[in-house]
Amino acid sequence: MQSGGNEARAHLGAAAGPAYRRLYERIREAILSGQLTAGARLPASRQLAAESGVSRNTVLAAFDQLNAEGYLEARRGSGTYVARVLPEQMISPGRAVKSSAQSRATPRGLSERGQRIAGTDRMPLPAITGASSHSTAFQIGLPGLDEFPSELWARLYAARMRQSARDLMRYDDAAGYRPLREAIAAYIATARGIRCTADQVVVVSGSQQALEFCARILLDPGDPAWIEDPGYLGARAALISAGARLVPVPVDDKGLDVSAGIEREPGARLAIVTPSHQFPLGSTLSLERRIALIDWAARAGVWVVEDDYDSEFHYVGRPLAALQAIDQHDRVIYVGTFSKAMFPSLRLGYLIAPRELVDGFTAAHLSTDMHAHLLDQAVLTDFIREGHFNRHLRRMRVLYGTRQKALIREADRLRGRLRVAPSDGGLHVIGWLPKDFDDREVATAAARRDIHAWPLSLHSIEPNHPPALLLGYAGTTEPDIREGIDILGQLLGGRATAK
Question: What does DSSP assign to residue 420?
Fold first, then answer.
């Protein structure tokens, strides 16, 4: 352990120039060049500050950014270490492992911001193979496409093309197709208790674009922003691409620990949260913490982004009202998506903005893709207004509840090697592994067998949880669930027991 610290110290030297950014760059370069090897322990922040001639806060800021980008790992009570697997070495399920030389190569011509974006971890998007037998076992975020009313959707699409094709081939309002905005405002008022008018709805190309817009128009480079830890990689990517300083805030069975966030960075300019069904752990933000979060935002004059990505799917009782519904200070920006309720290639989502921010979000839309796909917006409007959307959601809740029970039942055959507890909602559960397992290695081995188990550790900035896999069930049939558990049983050291 001591030799690792000496190695780190030898290659860092004294920092020069703008302190926080220069120190970040020196450490990152030492890691990418191989001077700092995987697992090497860095000096303590106070010691490195003294040796580098900078303040301890400068060192902590550099460490925070490197932690957020996956280059360092903070181990509670032990110190800060070079990550075992660097961002450049991360693989998505089904992809081959890059060679060491390839993983250290920096793309030519990219700006520093471009390099940060290119090196950011992303959620897995398995390639389309064209083979109908291609397994989707445990892919997270995938709805039940086998039960989507495709023929109905095609009829609505064809009707729109016959009736108003020319009108839907033009430019439209950057905030979105007005009838869809009206339909969304009416739907979420009933489903989530949201208080808004159609003028506050901005239709975007999926929730990821909504998060990008929030980070872009609400933050300046270097501004601190709260992010759940573990949390959604898309939120992390949006903040990193905006040059924000990430402040990881721990999550427990009551959701985001608001008091810990205030203690770590009371002056954060933004917080991105998933209060209804925390991603990835699945907890619900308690009412006490919801009130504390809104009170903090009101006092500090900052914004809270509520990512309500899968609240349509709740299997026990009714979900709590949206955070926005209890916000009396207009500090919450609500983000919703149709990717989970409908199908992922329908790149339509929306945000509900306080009135003072609507112009900023529409301007952000104009500076990127003008507006979301107009024909899709019109067809979705018909789908909602004719009652098909609500009927589809009711069917999917029953289906997904059944599939979750099937996954838990099958996982019980791996008792001692995989522990899966039921979840009140959502599209995935957590499969906890024995403490001596590496969830990234298990996920990589599973990907070679066409199983999309995703490691929990990749979502963590500060590793505070045992190894685990995210297991999606909504888009996986019961035969595929059983086969997937059989394969995981083989990978985890033995076969699944028969039931």
Answer: E
